[in-house]
Design goal:
Layout: H1 3-22, E1 28-32, E2 35-38, H2 39-55, E3 60-63, E4 78-85, H3 87-92, E5 98-105, E6 108-116, E7 121-126, E8 131-136, E9 142-147, E10 159-163, H4 170-183, E11 186-188, H5 193-201, E12 207-210, H6 215-227, E13 231-234, E14 247-250, H7 255-262
Parallel strand pairs: 3-4, 10-11, 10-12
Antiparallel strand pairs: 1-2, 4-5, 5-6, 6-7, 7-8, 8-9, 12-14, 13-14
Amino acid sequence: MDKIETLIYKMLLKSSFKLKKMQLNKKIYNKSPKDLVTDADFQSQKIIIGMIKQNFSDHKIYSEETEHEDKDLNAQNCWIVDPLDGTNNYAYGLDLWGISIAYAKNSIVQYGGISFPALNTILLAKINSGSYKINFDKNGKILKKIRLHVSSRELKNSMVLACYGQGENLSKTFEKLKKLHENVFHVRHLGAAVYELGYVATAAADAAVLFKVKPYDIAAGALIIQEAGGKITKLDGTNYSLDAKAIIASNKKIHSKLVKLLNF
C-alpha cells in the first residue's frame, strides 16, 4: 500500500476500534426527529480529521459532522468522510454500521475505504488498481486480503439493497420499490450506505439503489464498486458524480434494466 492507502487503512482501523469500544456507553442526541447522532460520531471524526491534518495540513476535509461547503469537493485535494455511517443502527445496537473515507483530486475520487467494524473487515480501492477486502484481527493485523469482483447474476435472481431515508417523496419511492420487488429476487433495506455499497462490491448483493444520498455516503463505496467491475450512475442513468442526489450501483450486467425499471 502507498502512503494514502496506508493512511486510510490506519484511520479506518483506529476509528473502528474506538467505535466498538464506545457502542455500549454512547450518548445519543436527536439531529432531527428521525435522525440520530452520538458522541461516538464525533470521536471517530476527531480521530480521522486529526490524522489527515497531521499528514496533509493543507487538504480540504468534507465530513458529515462538521461544517462543509460543496465547493470543497472540487478542490485539488479533498477528503470526504463519514465517521459513522448507519448511526441509527449503531444507536439501537444493530451491527450494520461503518466508516467511509475517500480522497479526491479535483472532484475525482482516487482512493476509497470503508470499514465494517463488527465484521473486522475493511474494503479498499485505488483508482485503476482494483479493490480489495481485508480481514483483520483484534490487534489490527491483516489476516487475509482478496481482490474483489462484482457478481454476474441476472436481474430475476438479483438481491437488490435499497436505501430511501426519510423525506417528502416516499410515496413515489415506494412505487419504485414495488417495481423492484416485482422484478428481482429480493429487496433489502439495511440503513447504512457503506453496507449497501460494500455488499455490491463483494458480490453478496447485485445492486444497490440509494434514493437520497450525500457525497460522504457514497464517495468511497462508489470507487470500490467501480474497481470491482461494477457500474454507478445517477438514478436516471446519467453519469455519476459526487453531487449525485440518488444513485444506482450494480454488477453492470443488470444496470440498464434497473435504470429502465426505476424511471417511469
